[in-house]
């Protein structure tokens, strides 16, 4: 089973924009859901792109299940993110002007994609997520973020995402020269809070 490329758009038309924000929804969510969040972000002059997962799920099992259990969905999901990036680049938007915002399963997918394709991007916000696999396979991650700002926000505890994986993810991103800001909220629950939106705005969407 694989995903079908289905990109929902909002904001400035892609061929008129200088910046793009790629938004990746969580399990059970939708492209439209995550696009609606953009009204709280300082992205008035951005093209907004949100790929839609087949059956609202990027991969079937937990992100810390053995990777092979989540195949072929995971590889297909990573390809969907890549195709969304390519659509922005094809429209003339430079990678350093491409930004990412992912929540939960979408945050995990965003982080996994970025670490496998590290270069100077505009920035990324990943709310409640970490790199994918029962063990992190460092061999999968290549490139240099060249100072790309990355914001990681999470709750401790979180039912789906262990705090240890968030810290391990932050460490690898730093090794790859990302400028990482992490914020842990005690017992906040599995959702996005107002301060995380404010931090995303101040760190990424200045």
UniProtKB/TrEMBL annotation:
An example molecular function term from Gene Ontology annotations: hydrolase activity
UniProt protein name: Phospholipase
UniProt keywords, alphabetically: Hydrolase, Plasmid
Sequence similarity: Belongs to the AB hydrolase superfamily. AB hydrolase 2 family.
Membrane spanning stretches: none
PANTHER family, sorted: LYSOPHOSPHOLIPASE-LIKE PROTEIN 1, LYSOPHOSPHOLIPASE-RELATED
Protein biosynthesis keyword on record: no
Family matches, as Pfam families: Abhydrolase_2 (PF02230)
Keyword Hydrolase: yes
Domain Phospholipase/carboxylesterase/thioesterase: 16-202
């Amino acid at each position: 089973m694989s995903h079908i490329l289905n990109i929902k758009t909002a904001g400035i038309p892609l061929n008129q924009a200088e910046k793009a924000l790629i938004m990746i929804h969580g399990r059970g969510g939708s492209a439209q859901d995550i696009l609606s969040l953009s009204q709280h972000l300082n992205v008035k002059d951005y093209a907004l792109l949100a790929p839609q997962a087949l059956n609202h799920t990027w991969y079937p099992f937990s992100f810390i299940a053995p990777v092979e259990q989540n195949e072929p969905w995971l590889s297909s999901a990573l390809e969907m993110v890549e195709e969304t990036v390519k659509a922005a680049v094809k429209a003339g938007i430079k990678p350093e002007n491409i930004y990412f915002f992912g929540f939960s399963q979408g945050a995990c997918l965003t982080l996994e994609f970025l670490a496998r394709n590290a270069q100077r991007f505009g920035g990324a916000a990943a709310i409640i997520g970490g790199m994918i696999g029962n063990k992190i396979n460092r061999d999968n991650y290549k490139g240099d973020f060249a100072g790309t700002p990355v914001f990681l926000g999470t709750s401790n505890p979180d039912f789906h995402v262990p705090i240890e994986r968030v810290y391990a993810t932050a460490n690898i991103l730093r090794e790859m020269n990302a400028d990482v800001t992490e914020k842990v909220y005690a017992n906040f629950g599995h959702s996005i809070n107002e301060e995380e939106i404010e931090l995303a705005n101040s760190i990424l969407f200045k």
